[in-house]
Each structure stands twice: as structure tokens, then as C-alpha cells.
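Ticket closed. Logging final result for Cytochrome P450.
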Amino acid sequence: MPFTMAFIHEVQRIESIIANNLLRRASEDTKIGNHFIPKDTLVMFNFWSVNHDPNLWPNPDKFDPTRYLTEDGSKAVKPPYLIPFSAGKRNCPGEGLAYVELFLYLVCMVQRYRIKVEPGTELSFEAVFGISRRPANLPLFIFEKVVH
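Final structure:
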């Protein structure tokens, strides 16, 4: 189960569905690092840049669920800078429910099916950006029922 949660975390990190949050307005003068943000400035949270920042993620373009596992692999740990549901006061109130649903849906699928693509199909993280990100080339998935 820890590896399943680590897998979900890594999918959310490497393939941010929403690359940028909605516009927000600074409610007061703010300083972040060396940057001054005056009151009423429109700001946007760039999830993509956080999720691919090499200062936060070693080898950020490599898919590696083990980055969330404790040393003995007994627990998946979600770092505070993994923010697929935004962050702060305005993060998604359904985050907890979404994680339960993602976990249950994924586990049910992999328990019942062997999921494959056609031999020779090349999988890619290439995406098309719009309001949300979507795969540029979605392969045809083959679901073979697992017989118990």
C-alpha cells in the first residue's frame, strides 16, 4: 500500500493536470525571498515549476515513486511542496476524499486487470497545454481481465 500511494504522488507531481492556479490578488504588500509584491498585484501559482524544481526534486524529469518512501519502504510520505490540490487557505477542500478515491480506484483496477499497450508503443510525458494539461498522444490501453 505505501508503494501505491507513492505511485499516486509521483503521477500527480510529474504530470500536473493543472499547470497554473487561478489568478489571485495580493491582499497586502508581501515579500517572498528577494521579491516584493505590492498589494493588489495579480499573482499566479505555478504548480508545474514547483513540481519540476531540481532544488526540491532530484532528477525531476524522471518518474520515481520511491522518492516518497521511507528508507525501509514501509510508509509513503507526502512532502509539503507536493501540491496537486493547491496550497494554503484556498487549497481544495476535497483533497482527502480525492486521495481515498484515487487509491481505491487504482487498486481495484490493478487487482482486476493487467493493463498494457500494444507492443512497440512508446509512452511519453509530452502534453498539450490549455486550461488543463492533457497527453499529446494517448496510447490505446489494453485491459486483460485477471483470472483468480
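The longest strand covers residues 113-117. No further action required.
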